[in-house]
Model the fold of this input.
Amino acid sequence: MLLDTASLYFRAYFGVPESVKAPDGTPVNAVRGLLDFIDRLVKDHRPDHLVACMDADWRPAWRVALIPSYKAHRVAEERPAGPDREEVPDTLSPQVPVIEAVLDAVGIARVGVPEYEADDVIGTYTARADGPVDIVTGDRDLYQLVDDARGVRVLYPVKGVGTLALTDEAALREKYGVDGAGYADLALLRGDPSDGLPGVPGVGEKTAAKLLAEFGDLAGVLAAIDDPGAKLTPAQRRRLAEARPYLAVAPKVVRVADDVPLPDLATALPKAPRDPEALDALTARWGLGGSLERLLTTLRA
Done:
């Protein structure tokens, strides 16, 4: 099981009231909410291995170099010497280091790799897996990894993590008209305002799906531009031709990496905390209470 951790702690932050606080009055709603999420996921799905995948760089420079608008609207501060600072609610930012410290003390593998997003870490673990993979994320970008033949599916939280939309290839075909391998092509043709991806003007989700059904994949769509016999309207042909510079670089931006240099790290779920003393101190400092106790009980079971 691979967790898109930021996606989940954002959901926890907005789903759990800020009245959930540490003894000193600091909000810990994202911390406790995430622990409750992980507890429920482990209870319901019993994975053998679990990795909390992190954004070491939420807006990698190599992606921005290809498409400068990539996530640009979410930049709170540009940092020439390192990753830009993302716009995050004031009371969430201080909780992220606490989340990291708690996961480390519990012994849940936590992986972030410089110059890569959590999606890329997830993509690489998925590529290397020799068994089924469940990806837990509220980000549709990861639908591109769905692969029935390899047992790779996405668990998309609909309400908390108690209600998850199980996304396999049948679900993708029903909703988007593509399978996992085709989802990245659909996404880059359609565009995604939330990620600053412009897409092809005039090509929405349905048109993108029709183009891919007709021509197979992005390479087929590009070949059709110069094929007078291809079933493209004049407007589609013109718009796709004008979008060629974007379509040449978009695949590298939209497709998750599968060759990230992952650390050599044990990913098996722990039966007991890795660092009990640190965990006791964190529990006292941040008032983790029942959320942590429930998770530890589930891990011991």
